[in-house]
Amino acid sequence: MEECFKHTDLEWRLAQIPDSACCRGVFLNMLDERAAEFGRATHLAYRDFFKTSQFSAFRLYPVKDYLTRLAKLAEIQFGPSNIYSGIFTIQAAAWPAWRKTIVGRTAFAVVGNNISAILRMMSSTFNKILNFSTFEVNQLDAALFSTRFHNQYVYIEHAMAGALSGVAEACGYQAELKVTLDDPFNGTIQMHLLPPKG
What we know:
Elements: H1 2-7, H2 10-16, E1 22-24, H3 25-37, H4 40-50, E2 60-62, H5 63-78, H6 83-99, H7 102-111, H8 115-129, E3 134-141, E4 144-150, H9 156-170, E5 174-183, E6 186-194
Antiparallel strand pairs: 1-2, 3-4, 4-6, 5-6
Helix pairs in contact: 3-4, 3-5, 4-5, 5-6, 6-9
């Protein structure tokens, strides 16, 4: 993990996270799926480094493990100097990929591409998928949302911004994001929706 520690604040960040902070195993499984999508070499390198790659989807696991795996996968695929942008890219792919699953297709069948409804659903279920953070959504106008993260240990400005970008993409939009951090674990992301390209 030396390169990850050298090029990010990961070592410091991991020391701030309590052992009790956990997320569902589905997120750790998602990282293995992303590694596979990057190609055989990345997938093998990721699996070789961590050994364990499959987790019980609904069981809670330490978010320290998730964050470590996320940073390492970004390093493997994008290189040490691009870990932060790699984290954004990995997280941005999560929601469009989830949409293709049975559960995702069912959810989108109910709410369609209504991004306001999707964001409200995410906010209301946030405390069921992890036990350490809250996520609030304010719709300021038809194409402008303010999302607020409290006590979020997984990079707000990279991972959470990437996730919101992925939600917008899954709903057929581009998104302009403006991140304002109060401190490393609390902040706001303003999301302005733009029409899709083309």
